[in-house]
Fold this protein.
Amino acid sequence: MNILKRYGFYFLLAGVISDFLTPYVLGVFYPQLDQMTSVMSLFGDVDSPVRQAFLIWSVVAGCFYVLALPALYTAFKPTSHRLAGLAVLAIGAYGIGDCIFTGLFSVDSADAQWSFSTWVHNIGSSIGYAGFLFFPLILFFLYRVQKEQMSRRYLSLFCLSIAVAAIYGLARLPQLNQFVVFKQLGFWQRLSFIFNYLPIVYLAMTQLKKRKRLNN
C-alpha cells in the first residue's frame, strides 16, 4: 500500500497517457475507421482488426487509474474525508466502468439487439464517464476548502468539460445528424476526453511537484 501511495500519481499519469494514446496508435492499424465520425469503443467491436489490442489496452489503462486511488485519497483525506472519497469514487468509476469494463465487455455494432456484453459496456461507460466529467468539480470543492486559488482553475476546466460534453451529447442524437457539425461524433468525443484529461494531469503534476519540494 505504501508503494501505491508513493507512486500513485505516476500511475494516474500513466493511465491518462495510455488512455489518450489508444485511438491514435490503434488508428494506424485500422485506417478504415474514421476517427472524426466513429466513437472509440468501435476499436473493440467484434469485427475490428485491432479488437484484442484495444481490449487489453483498455484494461491496462483502467488498472493504472485504480492503482492511483490510494494516493489520491491520502492526498485529500486531511482536507475532507467525504470529498476525498468522492474523488476516489469518480476516478475509480472511470477506471473500472469506462476502461476495465470496456476491455472485458466489448460491443457488437452489427447486432440489432443489445447483448449482455453491450449492456454492461454501455452502462459501465456511462457511469464511468460521469465520474470522469465531475472529477474537476470535486477538486474545485476540495481546493476551495483549502482556500487555494487553483480551485478557480478546476472550476473553469469543469465548465469547459461540461460545454464540450454537451455538444458531444447533442451529436449522439439522430435528429441532429443532418447538421455537419454534429456529424463529427468521434471528434467531439475525443475533444471531450481531452478536456477531461486536463484536470487529472494538472492534479498529478501539482502533487508530484509538491512532493518533490517536501523531499528537498
